[in-house]
Amino acid sequence: MENLREKLEYHQEKDYLIPNVAIKNNNLDSYQIGKYGYLRLDYLKRNKKGYYTELMLEGALPEHIVDIDKEANMHVKNIIKNLAKANNVDEMLKQSSPFELVRLMNNFKNTAEEIVLKELIYN
Q1: pLDDT digit string (tens) for 33-55?
Q2: Are 36 and 68 in contact (CB under 8 A)?
Q3: Inside any domain, residue 112
Q4: Are 121 and 68 in contact (CB under 8 A)?
Q5: In the chain, which end has fewer C-beta atoms inside a 10 angstrom radius, N or C?
Q6: Is 25 part of any domain?
Q7: Helix (H, G, I), strand (E, B) or coil at 89
Q8: Within a domain: residue 111?
Q9: How many CA atoms lie within 13 A of 20 on its CB side?
């Protein structure tokens, strides 16, 4: 612990020494975190406090959240596409029975989200 204190630089504000600590900017400011990123962040805060703290201290939490969000979105899209292909959902169904198409696509989305939540978010 003493080594860390020696490595840090401090500045003085009134009677206090404040460490000069800054968060690394990984050019993640432009990415808008979505549903899955926030779900992962909430899960880590509530259930994996040690891992959450480790990521925070290393400055890797934003990158982790963005990676999980991107990967989850990609997996959901791929699963929906594969389920639609396996169940012969195409333009013909769209023209003949649009409500059936909406029902099926909603089911596919729910299924895909359940898979992604179990595999990526809550593990």
Answers
A1: 999 999 999 999 999 999 999 99
A2: yes
A3: yes
A4: yes
A5: N
A6: no
A7: coil
A8: yes
A9: 7
